[in-house]
Q: What sequence folds into this?
């Protein structure tokens, strides 16, 4: 059984609104794998853009890497090959030959959250903010709990349970949350 996640980046538009671009990731979406990899290897905006160029992915790795077998954890391949390929992104398009699907674009957080909550089976939402910091959200069919992606959260493999976004909140209410001071334990601060 897979732990699905959605990985997105946030960009401020000239009119002041926020746009989100993101891709689906099928395997290992929890904080101990995808969370740790995103925080430690994908916190550079340019490198992250190369990830979004891969379209939807089966699994996240430390780097994009090269075309490799889509299913490589078999006796057909050596342990060294398996370890090498596991450190690379596994892409549906590049590695399995699926049609290319560009990263999805969302106009505002509520549009992104609505998609993740209602249209995917994603357990986690990761957002690389305009301040170049990772946020993680635990997604359900009704809401998303957001928090800073910290080493402590990764170690605990847990997102705080307080709900910061509900599909019933407006973009203005969400923007107010996101701009709250970090010292209050919520928001990114601006």
A:
């Amino acid at each position: 059984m897979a732990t699905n996640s959605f990985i997105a980046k946030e960009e401020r538009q000239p009119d002041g609104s926020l746009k989100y671009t993101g891709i689906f990731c099928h395997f290992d979406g929890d904080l101990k794998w995808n969370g740790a990899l995103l925080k430690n290897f994908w916190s550079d905006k340019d490198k992250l853009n190369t990830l979004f160029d891969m379209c939807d992915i089966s699994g996240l790795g430390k780097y994009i890497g090269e075309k490799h077998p889509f299913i490589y954890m078999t006796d057909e391949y050596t342990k060294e090959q398996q370890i090498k390929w596991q450190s690379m992104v596994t892409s549906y398009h590049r590695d399995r030959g699926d049609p290319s699907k560009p990263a999805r674009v969302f106009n505002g957080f509520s549009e992104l959250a609505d998609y993740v909550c209602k249209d995917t089976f994603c357990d986690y939402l990761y957002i690389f903010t305009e301040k170049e910091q990772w946020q993680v959200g635990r997604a359900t069919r009704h809401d998303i709990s957001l928090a800073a992606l910290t080493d402590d959260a990764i170690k605990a493999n847990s997102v705080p349970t307080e709900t910061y976004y509900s599909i019933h909140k407006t973009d203005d209410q969400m923007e107010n949350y996101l701009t709250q001071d970090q010292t209050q334990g919520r928001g990114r601060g601006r």
Residues 41 and 62 are 6 Å apart (CA to CA).
